[in-house]
Each structure stands twice: as structure tokens, then as C-alpha cells.
């Protein structure tokens, strides 16, 4: 057996990890590169790995996987000469976006009021900007919360956080905002394999399958048996002796998949988003009843959950008012229900927004459904879709990665182009303007047509302090839009937001 000396960034459901392909009798097996080069097999359905030789930056090899067979295809599908800054990963927050480029470069754009862009100030950015503070940190994963951001270094050595610090969501032991990335000291040495961010809380999975949580806990979303916020990561004791392979976080609920394919839910359950058959909250993780099918992938929207079974079925449960469950109706569903319209396809990645959902098929086709007021589904219209519709891309490009923000969506195509659509009010689409778009539109700063990386501004390389000095006395999130009778307007004041019963307390800062 001969190991290929490559660095690989592989899409894994709703997250990513650093993997190493191993050549054995002309077949590739995917194994994780843990400490001391030991290998641990990941049974996740993967769409593809983008791998490169560290000393030959322009050579990229893409490996394509079969979700149905849960294994890699025999052949290396493509080998291309990539541009100087190829996009490897994307993640969308409430109103900001982040991308990881080759060479461990992290870029951000969109709303910056809470420091979530990590560039040292609280200004919005209409175009991607490079985070110099993370230069040389071997970053291999980026993940957005609503108004904060996380990054993880290779082998899980360090986890960084920045942005809005209320409720302790940054994990630094206080509620201070951070305008530049800071390492979470409580996670040092734990070999973190995956990070998931909700609205105001975070989850982490270690290399040996343990789960830690921190941040807001009003509805038990931390799984600690209490409703007290946690300013630092704490171990979820329910999973002691039950190795976890994947976690996902919604606004105020959390889910996890065990090594054996069991699904657990906890936290806020008012809309059935825990999948437990009722509308009750859970302060501790509880197993979701399944009909013998194992769960291999899961993602959370704001108040709904999306999952994939080992047989390939796509299931949704939770809040359905805007069709975000994809069942052709606007009903809530308290247990996972199969989306019959997609039963003839297999899926490699899922993502949930505030009121919309996206699913990426193994053949590169992208499907979306749910709320579409700002064009976040990408159909060219602004009408809601209660059943899945295919999202079209120029020249029928296949999609390899997706990420839903609250009201915008990001995608990477097989050519390496990054597209965005939906709400653009804070520049989260990355087009240098603040208009909405209802069809996928290429982000020119990341274009593979000879200009990749050439238009990306750099942030300051150092700051005297990473804490916010904002003098704004009342700060509030981009409050979700709840249409009123005869109007499509959004709340125009803090008081209106507080009176909007569709908005949980955590959304009003």
C-alpha cells in the first residue's frame, strides 16, 4: 500500500475534514489523516476531494465518490491545472459569507457589524477580503454561525472563532466580541474533527467521537441537561461511550449521528424539528426512532432538519410554513418524512437556511425549495416552492458544494467557480453591490477564468486588540422577515422585532 503525499480537502455532508487518499490495488480508499499518520475510515457519503501536492501548487486532482455505493469510484475523474487561488470550501452565515482557498487562505465578505468577517473592524464588505490574521495557520475548514465564524486547522490542532460574542458562542470564557480570529484555548489538544454553528451556539466533535458544546442554551440546545449558557466548551455526557461522527446545529436545536447511524436530537422542539414526534424541548440528546434505516448525513435549517438514510432517502422534519420541508405542503412534520419528489436520486450534501433548503445530488444537480422572497432558491422567480426544483447554472455546470445562509445561498461548481444568489443587502453575495439576485451569479473575485485571487483585498495583518469597541448602544441581528397582511415589509424598529412572535428572543440583540 502506497500513500500519496497530497493534501486533500473533502466535502463531507455539511462539513469537511483533512483526508488522505490511499492507493491499494488500483482502488482508492479514503482515510482520515489523524495524529502520527494513523488512519481512521470515514463512512460518510462524500461528493469529491480536491487534492494537491504541497510543493506543486498549480496541480490539482479531483476524486469523485459514489454516495449509493458509499465508496469511491475506480478512477481519478479529473486532473486540472487550477488557478492561483482555487476555492476549496464555502460557508454562509446570516448575512455574511466565508471561503477557504488553496494555500490555506481564508476570505470573507458581507455584513461585518459584529466582527464576523474577522478583518479587524465592523464594516460591511461588498467584495471578498483576505483574513491575514489566519495566514500560516494551516486552516482546512471554515464554518459560519449567524453572526460569528469558526475555522479549524489541520489535524484539529487549533480552532479559531471571531464575531459576536454574546451568550459565550465564541468559546473564550466571556461574552466579548472578537474582531479578528482567536484560538479557543479550551479546545487545544482535543483533535477536533468537526465544528457546527447554530444561531448562538456551537458543537464540536473530537477525533474519538466525543461532543462538546457551548454558547446559548435557553432551550437546552447544548445538551447539558440545563438551560444555562456556557461560555466555554463542555462535554455532552449523554454521548459518553457512544461515538459520534457528525453534528449539525439549527437556530436553537442540535442533532447528531452516531457511528452506528442513529440520529439524536435535542434543544428547542416547538415545530417538531427534533424529529421526536412532539413539540417539546429536550435538555438532553434523545434518539430519533427510525424504521431500521441508518442515518448517514444530517443538516439543520433554522427550525427544521434534513437527513439522508443509508438507503439514499432524503427526509425532513420540523417547521414547514414556507414549504421548506419539500413535501408539497406548508405543514409542520414532527418526525422525519421522506421527500418523495427526490426518491429517484442520491445525495451527497445538504444545507438548510432560515426558511429554505438545498440538496446536492451525486450527479452534480442542485435542488432547492422553501421560502424564496429574495430569490434564495435560485429559480429566477421570487415565489415560494413547497416541492423541490432544480437550480440551473450556466453551461449546465455541475455543482460540487453548497451552503445556505439565512436568505442567501452559495455554490461551487466543478470548474471551481463560486456562485451566489438571494439577499444581497449587506454585500453577502460578493458582487460589489447590495442588490438581490434570484439566479446563481458568479463571484468574479473567485472566477477561474484567469482572475482568481487577483481582486481580493487583504485585511490588516495585526491589531492591538481583538475586542470590539463599538459604541452602538442597541445592536440587533438582521431580524427575519415575517410578512404581514397585505405587506411584504420587514420590521422597521427594535420594538417591531420584539413584537414579532415568529422571532425567538435570541434574534433581538
Give me some keywords for this one.
signal; globular; 9-stranded antiparallel β-sheet; 5-stranded mixed β-sheet; repeat; RCC1-like domain-containing protein; disordered N terminus; 1 helix; RCC1-like_dom; about 45% strand; mainly beta; about 500 residues
Helix content: under 10%
Radius of gyration: 21 Å
Computed structural class: mainly beta
Which ranges are low-confidence, i.e. pLDDT below 50, for 5 or more consecutive residues? Answer: 1-6, 12-47, 52-83, 450-454, 461-509
| DSSP helical segment count | 1
Main sheet record:
9 strands, antiparallel
Content of β-strand: 35-45%
Question: Total strand count, please?
Answer: 38
Rounded mean pLDDT is 80
Terminal Cα separation, in Å?
55 Å
What is the molecular shape? globular
Describe the structure in your own words.
With 509 residues, the protein is mainly beta. Among the domains are: 2-81, no CATH class; 481-509, no CATH class. It is 1% helix and 43% strand. It contains one helix and 38 strands. The strands form eight sheets. Strands 1, 2, 3, 4, 5, 6, 7, 8 and 9 form a nine-stranded antiparallel beta sheet that branches. Strands 10-11-12-13-38 form a five-stranded mixed beta sheet, with no helix packed on it. It starts with a strand and ends in a 10-residue tail after the last helix. The model is unreliable at 1-6, 12-47, 52-83, 450-454 and 461-509 (pLDDT under 50).
